Amino acid sequence: MSDPLVEALGASRRFGALLAVDDVSLAVRPGEVVGLLGANGAGKTTLLTLLLGLLAPSAGAVRLCGAPPSREGRRRVGYVPQNLGLYDSLTVAENLEFIAGAYGTPVPTLPDGLAPLARTPVGSIGLGNQRRLAFVAALGHAPALLVLDEPTSGVDPLARARLWDTIREQAQNGAGVLVTTHYLQEARQCDRLVLMVAGRAVAAGSEADLVGDLQAVQVRTPVWQEAFAALTAAQLPVVLEGTGLRVADVPVQQVRAALAAAQVPAEVEAVPARLEEVMAARAAR
User: pTM value?
Assistant: First the structure.
């Protein structure tokens, strides 16, 4: 196997009494897309900043491009943070010129959809175009590693699909990609997943690896709101899907009893779990 482009070796980060990242180990190699999953506050963004050397670990170690994180190592990284790293008061073209100047590389050519906006301040263009611009800026120096923190958050499905085409293209060309996402449809496009809960990496592998033989209980009822309230009150890991309910890693009898105690009529059935239920079950442990 190729040497990792970035890796955490039992990395932890503490902020006072808060252990934001707790003994996490992972690696990203050339040509693979690794998805980092977890609820808000799980420690995903803090882990990314450790991997980039923007924060020092409180314990453990981090290696970027085979060495401790450094300015030279970060020159091989394309980074799209949650806030996109763009300057609202600068135009689209000025943002690209500034970022290219920082890397000492030629200014990237704007794609057709952004070219007419070259002289428009970034704060005046839509979020979808801002995210496209952030990708153009991150890829302008042909990075060996892409680190993307919620790169498609807040954009429409078509724009998300186009950005994921770009992600897959970069991986096919040999770049490693580490991406956080809340969209489980996007997570399924990753080669490998790492699930974080309360600062810890609690599961890793393919979607099939994470799901394993976990079972869920599917609940059908016309009074789904009452059912949701009853299952939540019983402290069961319930996932709402439209007006349908699924409960992970709990016996059918326990779900049926919780609904009966609240006098909620429902049909329940054991079914194979999905990634959504895995996340809910892990968070509830």
Answer: 0.85
